[in-house]
Amino acid sequence: MKRWISGWRAGLGAAALACAQLAGAAYPDRPIKLVVPYTPGGSTDQFGRALAEGMSRELKQTVVVENKPGGATQVGTNLVAKAPADGYTIVFATNGSMVLNPMLYKKIAYDPPRDFKIFSIGAEAPLVVVTNTQVPASTIRDFAAYAKSADGKLNYSSVGLGNALQLATEMLKSDLGIKVTHVPYNGSAPALAALLANDVQLMVDVVSTSLPHIKAGKLKPLAVTSRNRLEVLPNVPTVAESGYPDFHAATWFGLAAPADTPPEVIARLRAAADSAVRDPKFRATFDGLGLVVQQPRSQAEIDRYIEADRAHWGKVIRANNISLD
């Protein structure tokens, strides 16, 4: 009898283990929600939706995009921080939500290193330094000379306080040794309208929103902030090429899940995201919009990338004493 009970228990344990393994292998067995903490239609939303589509094909399960804008990405991001760590709720992550916000806001409900595992860096969004046709400058050095002669009377626009565009402009001002007054706007459309009207004379913008105005001859690209020239602006030099060799600024788009999500689920999600960004059609679409689609990274490489990004922008924020609350 004892041998029978012992055998029965062993069989039960083996069955339980098999069921657990089967359950793990079945992930995902229902749709996954990707929270995008931005309004529909912008480059971030477009990239998130394309990632969701590519991941759906790989996972054989629908990845549903849910837009949750507000609070400089904090509304949607915090929603995912509090979600069950089961791999069925993930967030579209950017350096704004995962790097800048925690350094800019003292009152913030989530802490990225504690609350999230960033498992994909899908693209970098390099920036372009633009001016209007009324400004007598065609290069960064030309603009620096013009700004110095204007003796602090020039302005620059951004999409608001504390975002990567404003911080990159402050970096540029410091490197060029110029004084230009910041005028924040509520979004890229009014910021670009002000530049076109010569209410401001400079803007550092994501390439995708300035590109139509550049192609129409209404804005002049002075330089790009990436490490290398961009395919969509092959004749525009980098800031580094223009005589400021240490200059580099870019925002990034990626994916994150609640920190306690099981490692095997994170690995499955990362593999699906990697499959999406490897797709030639996907890469061609977003390279053509001025995004630099990234090669897949290991988790260790992603962790190092994020730490370096935090160190880079932290230095800028501290140097300019920027705080948003």
Automatic annotation (TrEMBL):
Gene3D superfamilies: Bordetella uptake gene, domain 1, Periplasmic binding protein-like II. The keyword Methyltransferase does not apply. Pfam families: TctC (PF03401). Keywords: Signal. InterPro entries: BUG, Bug_dom1. Residues 1-25 form the signal peptide. It comes from the Bacteria. Transmembrane segments: none annotated. Belongs to the UPF0065 (bug) family. This is Extra-cytoplasmic solute receptor. It comes from Cupriavidus respiraculi.
